[in-house]
């Protein structure tokens, strides 16, 4: 794993956006894996700037999001479908048909998991996956204990993850108890991975990632099994290093 520590959240976001732009402008078509949460919001803002100011086109880009809450309709204000529309997709020229997010409101979740895996495969696989990290080391919604060989699956969210994400909901009780997420093995199939880590509240997780061996009680440590991972961290997240 390569580690790049930059001064600020802003720098982390701009650097990541530049790296994405380089890849989408030098490839005929590009498949990008996207994450939700607060961490990548700045990257999405910078990508919108790149589109508006510098005319960067997303017509050749397909996206696959990591996860979605179970039970939320795509138009629900807390769904990740809605998050992605509001933070990125509605401001850039990406084709709607090229946007993929697992559906959390189907009648057959198992079928949706298999379907999601098959469309990632049919696209030729993810060229670059953007990841954030949970305080407990989760990536996507792969909570501690998740098998490293897991593919897209349904998870029960831990209380700590529900509490961490409660800030987006009106009341903590509204946070769904389950989600559909790309599995660890699905994530590791990506050709390249950027793990973004920002803020003091992630300092411990980053320190743990860099100092412990692969351990399925700390899902992000699975990234040590991948040959092309870059951690981009801001100085607040790097305080314990
Ligand atoms: C959520 C998402 C993850 C994200 C993590 C960290 O649970 N499912 O993909 O990486 O939380 O979120 P944040 O960036 O808001 O700290």
What would you note in describing this structure?
- With 241 residues, the protein is an alpha/beta fold.
- The chain has a single domain, classed as Rossmann fold (3-Layer(aba) Sandwich).
- It is 31% helix and 18% strand.
- It is built from 7 helices and 10 strands.
- The strands form 2 sheets. It has a 7-stranded parallel beta sheet with strand order 1-10-9-6-2-3-5, with helices on one face.
- Helix 2 links the parallel strand 2 and strand 3.
- Helix 1 packs across helix 2.
- The model has no long low-confidence stretch (mean pLDDT 97).
- Bound molecules: 2-amino-2-deoxy-6-O-phosphono-alpha-D-glucopyranose.
- 2-amino-2-deoxy-6-O-phosphono-alpha-D-glucopyranose binds next to helix 5.
Number of helices: 7
Helix content: 25-40%
**In the CATH scheme, what's the topology name?**
Rossmann fold
Extract low-pLDDT stretches.
Answer: none
- Proportion of beta-strand residues: 15-25%
> Could you report the average pLDDT, rounded to the nearest whole number?
97
Largest sheet: 7 strands, parallel
What class, by secondary structure content? alpha/beta
Question: Taking strands numbered 1, 2, ... along the chain, how are they ordered across the largest sheet?
Answer: 1-10-9-6-2-3-5
What order do the SSEs take from the amino end to the carboxyl end, as H and E?
EHEHEEHEHEEHEHEHE
Domain count = 1
Computed CA radius of gyration, to the nearest angstrom: 17 Å
* Head-to-tail CA distance between termini: 15 Å
Hetero groups? 2-amino-2-deoxy-6-O-phosphono-alpha-D-glucopyranose
Counting DSSP E segments of at least 2 residues, the number of strands comes to: 10
């Amino acid at each position: 794993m390569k580690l790049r520590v930059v001064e600020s959240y802003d720098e982390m976001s701009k650097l990541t956006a530049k790296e994405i732009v380089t890849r989408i402008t030098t490839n005929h078509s590009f498949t990008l894996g996207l994450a939700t949460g607060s961490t990548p919001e700045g990257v999405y803002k910078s990508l919108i700037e790149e589109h508006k100011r510098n005319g960067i086109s997303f017509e050749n880009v397909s996206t696959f999001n990591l996860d979605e809450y179970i039970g939320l309709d795509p138009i629900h204000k807390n769904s990740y479908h809605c998050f992605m529309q509001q933070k990125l997709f509605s401001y850039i020229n990406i084709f709607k048909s090229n946007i993929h997010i697992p559906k959390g409101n189907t009648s057959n979740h198992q079928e949706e998991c298999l379907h999601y895996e098959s469309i990632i495969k049919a696209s030729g696989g993810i060229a670059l996956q953007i990841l954030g990290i949970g305080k407990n080391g989760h990536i996507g919604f792969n909570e501690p204990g998740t098998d490293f060989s897991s593919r897209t699956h349904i998870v029960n969210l831990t209380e700590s993850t529900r509490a961490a994400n409660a800030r987006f909901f009106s009341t903590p009780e509204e946070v769904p108890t389950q989600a559909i997420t790309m599995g660890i093995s699905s994530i590791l199939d990506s050709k390249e991975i950027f793990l973004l880590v920002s803020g003091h509240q992630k300092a411990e997780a980053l320190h743990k990632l860099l100092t412990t061996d692969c351990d399925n009680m700390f899902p992000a440590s699975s990234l040590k099994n991948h040959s092309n991972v870059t951690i981009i961290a801001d100085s607040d997240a790097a305080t314990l290093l």
